[in-house]
Amino acid sequence: MQNQKAESLVIVRGGGDLATGTIQKLYNAGFPVWVLECSQPTAIRRKVAFSEAVYDGEATVEGIRAVRVEDREQAAKEAEQGNIPVLIDGEARILQKVRPHVLVDAILAKRNLGTRRDMAEITIALGPGFRAGEDVDLVVETKRGHQLGRLIWEGEALPNTGIPGVIGGYGKERVIHAPAEGCLHVEREIGSLVQKGERLAVISGKEGETEVDSPLEGVLRGILRDGFWVPKGMKLADVDPRKEEQANCFTVSDKARCIAGGVLEGILALENRRGKR
Fold first, then answer.
1. Which of 8, 116, 126, 232 is in the most buried spot, having the most CB atoms within 10 Å?
2. Is the per-residue pLDDT at 84 higher than 90?
3. Cα(81)–Cα(84) distance, rounded to whole angstroms?
């Protein structure tokens, strides 16, 4: 990695669909970006999540290729080739060897899983669970609505309500949770047009087979990987009632792009305040 690029390195914790929006925007803006993921990511919108590289070795979203790597040497090599390296490093141990210019916590766990303000020159977190000015330099609002993407310089993001944002007139109705514990066997592909009550998957567990049906008519926007073991109650799929949004199952969402804009704005604002740009 060239020195100039090394000085602007961004490490993003998390590679789910919202994190991928941020990764994409920073990559397009010229920042070298490395991604840290856990060993079993649970992205539902898998077609637009760089975290899928953990399972498949690579993942491409809107023409940008992410590649799973084993160490910082491989990460630097892939970055030089124009790819985004993805390391299986949920605890961010790489930071003991590499100090990035920016660290973005995009895990979206609704709580802090170990990100500290001293881990990078600039630290930014997405959503609730962090206090700006203490845990990190900045927090970016992730709740849908008027405040989405807003920079928070002091305090925290709005608390998690547990209620999904409304899309096409539907909120919690469009999200599917596992009706039983067991192994998920997916029967419909992401992007499929589905009918209300149509079987999307089957969960095989101690109680036998339990059907997972679509709660409404629309497009299967996302679903966990086939063969994934799910506990009862886990979020596993999302149906979009807007049939015209079928093609958008394979592109970064408006919400992800808005949050990504907040992250980029935050980096530039902090650099300007500190005389770095």
1. 126
2. yes
3. 9
